[in-house]
Design a protein that fits this description.
Rossmann fold; three-stranded parallel β-sheet; globular; alpha/beta; 7 helices; 2 domains
């Protein structure tokens, strides 16, 4: 299962462990900048070829080293390395299927020639039509694959609109693992409020984002958005979008940040953040 790791694909590690628990045998070929611990998983690291055009404003300063590999030029020139690595793994391990987690763009047309007699599938988590010739390049990138796995109903519908064969598209919804994550109990909520010094009627939310790309400005934008939403809800408490238990009985104070000083945001970093209406 070749995949590309740049600090933001850690959820796949849970999927790999889940497959092993179900009794599946797998090998993982990962194109990643950093040599992260394999945590007991059969990961074969492939270093990418970085291509830097200019300072990339998408990345925080602390993660700018990832900008050189987070573009399709780097992916294209790194793809031969990945193909050779998969071939080496196949010399001692015969998989039933090769699944690509990452889309490397139109250059993936070469995969069918590289692996002519083995089923291949690819994940399709996001659809970004704001790029030039996106649908055309998307079709080229999917051409070698027997199965495309979109992560949402919306993406599946879009593939149908683009006339992909229904038997070639198998949607698997992504979301929260409700067996591992669930709303806290009343006792846990009360304990958390006491730990944070919050009153019983304070509205608490948890804010986070990509560690590579989220800045302090993004955090302040999230707080501003929360204030706008609360102002709208406070102007009409009957609005159904806010749960009844959260609807204010009087005017709503603004959101404000809470937490110990070590969690204060700094330029170029992405702290986890509490915000509350108190």
């Amino acid at each position: 299962m070749p995949f590309r790791h740049a600090g933001d694909k850690n959820f796949w590690l849970d999927i790999f462990r889940g497959l092993k628990r179900l009794g599946h045998e797998l090998r993982i070929v990962s194109v990643m900048v950093e040599d992260v611990p394999d945590d007991g998983l059969p990961i074969h690291r492939v270093p990418p070829i970085p291509i830097h055009f200019r300072p990339d404003q998408r990345m925080n300063v602390t993660h700018n080293h990832l900008a050189g590999t987070n573009n399709y030029v780097s992916k294209t020139v790194s793809l031969p390395r990945l193909i050779r690595a998969v071939r080496r793994v196949r010399s001692e391990f015969r998989p039933d299927v090769i699944h690509f987690v990452e889309n490397y763009g139109p250059a993936m047309l070469a995969l069918r020639a590289a692996f002519p007699r083995i089923p291949m599938s690819i994940s399709a988590p996001t659809y970004q039509p704001n790029r030039p010739l996106y649908d055309l390049f998307l079709e080229a990138s999917f051409a070698s694959f027997d199965t495309i796995v979109p992560f949402s109903d919306a993406y599946q519908r879009r593939l149908m609109e683009l006339r992909y064969r229904p038997d070639r598209v198998r949607m698997i919804r992504w979301g929260i693992d409700t067996e591992r994550f669930s709303p806290p109990t009343g006792v846990q909520r009360e304990a958390a409020r006491k730990e944070l010094g919050l009153s019983a009627d304070a509205l608490v939310s948890f804010w986070t984002g990509f560690i590579q790309q989220t800045t302090e400005d993004d955090f302040h934008a999230a707080v501003k958005t929360a204030n706008l939403v609360l102002d709208r809800e406070c102007s009409d408490p009957r609005r159904p979008s806010m749960p009844p238990a959260w609807r204010p009985t009087s005017s709503c104070p603004p959101f404000r940040t809470r937490g110990p000083p070590r969690h204060r945001p700094s330029r170029g970093s992405r702290p986890w953040r509490w915000a509350s209406r108190s």
